[in-house]
Amino acid sequence: MIQFANVVVYNYQYLLDPKVAGIISKEMEKECVVVFDEAHNIDNVCIEALSVNIRQQTLDGATRNLSQVTQLIEKSKATDANRLRQEYSRLVEGLAQRGNLAGTDTWLANPALPQDILQEAVPGNIRRAEHFVAFLKRLVQYIKNRMITEKVESESPVSFVTALQNQAGIDQKSLKFCYDRLHSLLLTLEVTNTDEFMYIQTVCDFATLVGTYTRGFTIIIEPYDERMPNIPDPVLQLSCLDSSLAIKPVFEKFQSVVITSGTLSPIDLYPRLLNFHPVISNSYKMTLTRDCLCPMVLTRGSDQLPVSTKFDMRSDPGVVRNYGRLLLEMVTAVPDGIVCFFVSYSYMDGIVNSWNEMGILQEVMQHKLVFIETQDVVETTLALDNYRRACDCGRGAVFFSVARGKVAEGIDFDRHYGRLVIMYGVPFQYTLSRILRARLEYLRETFQIKENDFLTFDAVRQAAQCVGRVIRSKADYGMMIFADKRYNRHDKRSKLPGWILSHLREAHLNLSTDMSVHIAREFLRRMAQPYDKTGKGLNATLLSQADLEKMEKK
Amino acid sequence: MSRECCALMWRSNSASTVSVCPPWRGLVFSAASSAAEMDLRPSRMGIVVDCVEAFVREFFDQNPLSHLGVILLKDGIAHQLTDLSGSPETHIRALRSNMESTGDASIQNGLDLARGYLTQIPSYGHREVLLVYSALSTIDPGDVMETVQECKKANIRCSVVGLSAEIYICKLLCEQTGGMYSVATNEGHLKELIMEHAPPPAAQAEMSVASLVRMGFPQRGAEDAVALCACHREVKMGGGYTCPRCKARVCELPTQCHICGLTLVSSPHLARSYHHLFPVSPFEEVENLASANGRQSLSKSCYGCLQELPTPGGKVKGVRLECPRCRQHFCFDCDNYIHESLHNCPGCESNSVILSQLSQ
User: Fold this and answer.
1) Environment class of residue B6 by beta-carbon count within 10 Å: exposed (0-12), middle (13-18) or buried (19+)?
2) What ipTM does this complex have?
3) Domains and their CATH numbers in chain A
4) How far is A395 from chain B (nearest CA, A)?
């Protein structure tokens, strides 16, 4: 079907994740134009496409799968030994893959990139089905042993493979073929309930990636989650550190690739992260008939005390009260819907609790209803639905959400659903996570990108993404408040996208709560006046035929 | 012809609205003001009452045959402040005496109350509600969307003048019922916006059902006549008007006779209503002075004031405007005066006079 279509729209994973791209996008021609829309998170998507996590359940499931496979082999040997023999001879002749796959076998696609798959004969020690199963059992046992550890271990794939060879006698070349061999075996055995074999597939993914790549990956074994040290939860993470790996085949195969987004800032960081040289790198401003954005940077409360979500200031009751008063004053000045973003679920829980104890939450509820996002999808959907209903019928509502949550990524709060968005704090990632630290180190060594720069870039990009939920059309209007004293500093402010910066006037920086309320009231009154949607003269936003012809001549 | 408008006003600690409900025909408008908010000096309630008072006087000036009622929104409930009546003094008195604001505002309650009164009005009356709203939200007992749909079905045109910011539900209300939504930026602007609603809207032909309305044209009594006044129930000296049907005495016009219910008006009142229904057509500018109409030369002076008009090759600057019916030329000032105050074109009036004179 794909080869007949003129335009194909699908997820990034279908093009970037080798597991699916090999099947779905194989038939795309070179002359295609590939456009990555909303690509501000593309480096994260590339990394996730090549990363594998293995937990205790995975290994238990893999063991189960292996015994199932053994049974199937025995059964098939008894009924039709021919099939297995044919497979063996095919492997000897060097057909590592079986050729065109049926459309339903998407889960069996190879995790490594196409050019990295060896086009060679499968090594002798795993050609026979029983030998291969034994090989996998040894691998699973080794991984289980590695995961029994008291402290965090981190090593490169090379050393892991070396240790594997010394202790379990598994060589690197066989590891590379793990995935294909499993695929071919399951096809031969005519397995139909592919969901059950997901665990062993994960282990084979891991094995193939570890065997294929030497650079740009790291293996981290953590015995427990640092935030909950008492619960043993060992996890082995093969994390890709280099986001350019997954997107390289796209750049090489297709003639034109366009990466675009509303919050792609700073724009020169992306070519470095994805390791390519852009032919054109341009940043466009929005043409608006009237100033329908009002971004503000709020650094202190009405009592002139600075506010921030910095770790040491977070639980200061003065800061909490100031944040609460900000919300309360805004609720009395702004109609319809208000959205608030917090830096994490735990922070949101803590601050909402404190507001409840101080009585601020009750006062807010007198003016508007309050809805909150939780980690449960169904609850959040229900909350969103009722929030919209409250805004529609004039009651007004406030929505509490988290900066890296599902709502911030996907839901729009346009028109009266979002007249004001408050970003409480700077949404940094969890900086003590080992994977993040490994990635930062890799970036520093390979691309000379400073750790602080990258962290700030990531945080500000997330904040801009949250805040951009509010404006969705030229006729829409909304206000944005960045409520943290760190936003006033040039290194953070300069990373905001151009369309926000162009509306961020000097008079709107370094505000306190009462000043921002005053600006808000005035802005709302101004925006409620009737205006000419097409704009005339300087503010022309609709081009006529004559305008287009004039532009063409130039 | 006459307009029924409901004004909703209610009071609350944050918003106080005044609404006027006409039981018969009337102008109802509501004003909401937040007395707690001092962003409009001296206080929102004070400013709103001042504007509304000016509006009431202007309204009766422009629509002498209409009725007005006031509804107040207070503590989440709608109170009827004054009945639908044709006398501005009652409304102003009631407004001035009720100036505190407490509680929340509920658009649904106000609209329901207004609708209840306005639906009793016969179909040739034009029904309107003007809502002066200063709160940012509405606390309703039920679904406000249903109320909006019912107002639309009952042909009630609702307009809103907001004092704080644009609220979605008000915008929806105005769009659905064909009204106007505006938000005031300061005191002067607020007065302008409220006064904009005083003159009646353009006649909607499809809504008016032709029917005959019975009216009385009372005579004014002599200065020394003594009679029992029907509206105040006390003896009054001099002046007053006598209802032609039941001979009761009323103090002011236009009004409804308290005894027999006949609408009492005087001819200027009727003429004034007529002016708004059938306005003078806009004058066209005479573009090409050079090419004079062959049959006659251009008149040198304005038909209305006899001042000099610009001619080709002449020294006088300005524009020359022509009435499309009688083809007379007027100057800019006369055009202004004719369209805004006089509501009659002198050329058209004299044309018929001349023709009738000639025919005699």
Assistant:
1) buried
2) 0.77
3) 52-242 (no CATH), 293-528 (3.40.50.300)
4) 5
